From TrEMBL:
Pfam families (alphabetical): PMP22_Claudin (PF00822)
Family: Belongs to the claudin family.
Chief location category: other
Annotated keywords: Cell junction, Cell membrane, Membrane, Signal, Tight junction, Transmembrane, Transmembrane helix
Gene Ontology terms, MF aspect: structural molecule activity
InterPro entries: Claudin, Claudin16, Claudin_CS, PMP22/EMP/MP20/Claudin
Annotated organism of origin: Sakesphorus luctuosus
Identification of the protein by name: Claudin
Gene coding for it: Cldn16_0
Signal peptide: 1-28
Membrane topology: Multi-pass membrane protein
Length: 188
């Protein structure tokens, strides 16, 4: 039972870590259309902003000036939290691989392997919380930005939505949290 639970947690952690990495690297955290005719489709991300012309499908992207330049708080905080979550999830995944029962490293000491799995679960839970906070922080800021435009009657056909990168970040963080619960609570 323990080996099956470990492999399930490993598979879920691997998939969720890939989701977190994709969410961090991709550029569609906030989606808006410039007008009601939907001539263009704009995606804003953590690293650049891309506009797709809906008529011919041509996509152009503008990189943000510099990582060190002044950026909105939502971008800086989300970048920081997502990169930290990626690093912690990767560390947890490496620790979990070494702690799996099917790996021959430290095979003579199962107590150490169990502690490695438990430690991987704790690290994964910290990374998942950081990823959730980063994703939800960005989503709430998008919602507040849209609400401010609506409340000031500046809402002239601009439509803000959460992009697929934001949803991917939330899904990856939630998957990491579930994997950490499997490793910390159910493994003993």
């Amino acid at each position: 039972m323990s080996a099956a639970l470990q492999m399930t947690a490993f598979g879920l952690a691997l998939l969720s870590t890939l989701f977190l990495l994709l969410a961090t690297c991709t550029d569609c955290w906030m989606v808006n259309a410039d007008d009601s005719l939907e001539v263009s489709h704009k995606c804003r991300g953590l690293w650049r902003e891309c506009v797709t012309n809906m008529q011919d499908g041509v996509r152009t992207c503008d990189q943000y000036d510099s990582i060190l330049a002044d950026h909105p708080v939502k971008i800086v905080v989300t970048r920081t939290l997502m990169i930290t979550a990626d690093l912690l999830a990767g560390l947890a995944l490496a620790t979990l691989v070494l702690g799996l029962d099917c790996i021959k490293l430290l095979k003579e000491d199962p107590c150490v392997k169990l502690k490695m799995c438990y430690g991987a679960g704790v690290i994964l839970s910290i990374g998942s919380v950081l990823g959730l906070v980063g994703s939800v922080w960005y989503a709430v800021d998008v919602y507040v930005e849209r609400s401010m435009l609506v409340s000031h009657n500046i809402f002239l056909g601009v439509h803000y939505d959460f992009g697929w990168s934001c949803w991917l970040g939330m899904a990856g963080s939630t998957g990491c949290l579930v994997a950490s619960v499997l490793l910390t609570c159910c493994l003993y």
